Amino acid sequence: MIESKYKSTPFLKKLLWLYFLLLLFEGALRKWVFPGLATPLLIIRDPLAVWLIIVSWRKGILEINIYVTLMMLIGVFATFTAILLGHGNLFVALYGARIFLIHFPLLFVIGKLFDKEDVERIGAFMLWVSIPMTFLLIVQFYSPQSAYVNRGVGGDLNGSGFSGALGYYRASTTFSFSTGTVAFYHLLGCYICYFWLSPSKRIPKYILVFTSILLVLAVPLSISRTLFFSVILLLIFTIFAVAVNKGSILKIIGVAVVLFVIIMLVSQLEVFQTATNVFTTRFTDANQVEGGVQSVLADRYLGGLVSALLAPDELPFFGYGLGMGTNVGSVLMSGKIEFLISEGEWGRLVGELGFSIGIIVIIVRLIVSVKITIASWHDLKYGNTLPWILLCFCLLTLPQGQWAQPTSLGFSIFVAGLTISSLRSTKGSS
Cys-Cys link to 275, which of 136, 150, 221, 424 (CB 3.0-4.6 A)? Predict the structure, then answer.
């Protein structure tokens, strides 16, 4: 998992770039460009992923390891059990199976095709894209849900924003839902921290400063506690990276001073003050409902994991059927979006697949996460901070991120692949 011994073709790398672009702008296609094709565009990245997997396997780039083999076998087996013993809907089962048969293997394809330089190019692109993205975020924040810029999937006139506070909504930017906005800015934050620690000729200093300002603006504008906590965690990961590489201490002090100045300057902007007021209100109201910050953190990351292990007695041995816990599955089976099984990812897996198979999938995701963590820590000790910084995103989505939602699945798989790609051989590594 350190460095691929295979040489990838430029064509396959271009396909990966296309996958990334579709991940960023699939929502825009579904909302504004081709609203009439919103449903098929939901899986627009799937054929591309299939092609990447097939070609990579034929060229010997993708090695079918035990994790890919196990997940693909589960995907095939669970498809049959869902049809014969579960909900009985072929299309729902196939939609659920694509996670195991297509997207999980793609994680390792990305890890083999890209190298550290490619990962840095993705980061440079992210910084440039963040400029128009944040402008769109501001416009959506101040615009009513009836405005064209806030139209929902399929041109829905009710808007794409989620409830926020004080009459403002959580914006979706170029994504179908606000979860994409949160993922985008979390990944952007990873790259901003990395480029402050490891300056690149691809990123002019003024762009790095400007995008840092945009990130500070985006946190309250998003009205998302998830993004707020993600940025806090990112700063902890960054500080830890500096502590391990003591030579970066003076650099991080300089960065801290710059960050302090940025926050002081941004805090004087009216847009920041308004957004902060909305965000604070949302934060306070939600915490009162959910029982405070500690309760929120425990429930969102740990509570769902524990509850998944407490499977109900009436749960069938092979579960209720693959795909039933996804939004698409709920629409096809009930006619509306609702959580037919569980809102939490682990609960969904156990409910769809049954306790035994669901736990196997959870263990596979945990093992892959642990292996990436160990490899990232190893490289961090030798001065490569990129995989460690990306690991901050990876550990929030790979073990228990909501793969039932296409955008969340896409970001989880793509960033996990980037984290593997950013690993490099170091002295003494094997």
Answer: 221
Q: Which tokens in the block code for residue 369?
A: 């996460």
Decide if 83 contacts 322 (C-beta within 8 A): no
Question: Cα separation of 103 and 96, whole Å?
Answer: 11
Q: Is 275 strand, coil or helix?
A: helix
Structure token digits, residue 89: 């809907």
CA dihedral (114, 119, 120, 124) positive or negative? positive
- Is 286 in contact with 225 (CB distance < 8 Å)? yes
- For 250, the token pair is 């003076």
Give the whole-angstrom CA distance, residue 30 versus residue 123.
Answer: 25
* Dihedral over alpha carbons 285, 288, 291, 294 (to 10 degrees): 60
Contact 421, 119 (CB under 8 A): yes
Cα separation, 172 vs 151, in Å, equals 10
Count CA within 13 A, CB hemisphere, residue 337.
Answer: 5
Structure token pair of residue 155: 């041109």
Angle between helices 327-334 and 90-98 (to 10 degrees): 180
Distance CA 267, CA 142 (A): 18
Give 158: exposed, middle or buried? Use CB within 10 Å, 0-12, 13-18, 19+.
exposed
pLDDT digits (tens, 9 = 90+) for 49-89: 999 999 999 888 888 899 999 999 999 999 999 999 999 99
**Tens digits of per-residue pLDDT, 16-28?**
999 999 999 999 9
Both tokens assigned to 104: 């999980």
Beta partners for residue 169, in sequence order: 163
Question: Longest Cα pair distance anywhere in the chain, in angstroms?
Answer: 63
Q: Which two three-digit tokens encode residue 246?
A: 């003591």
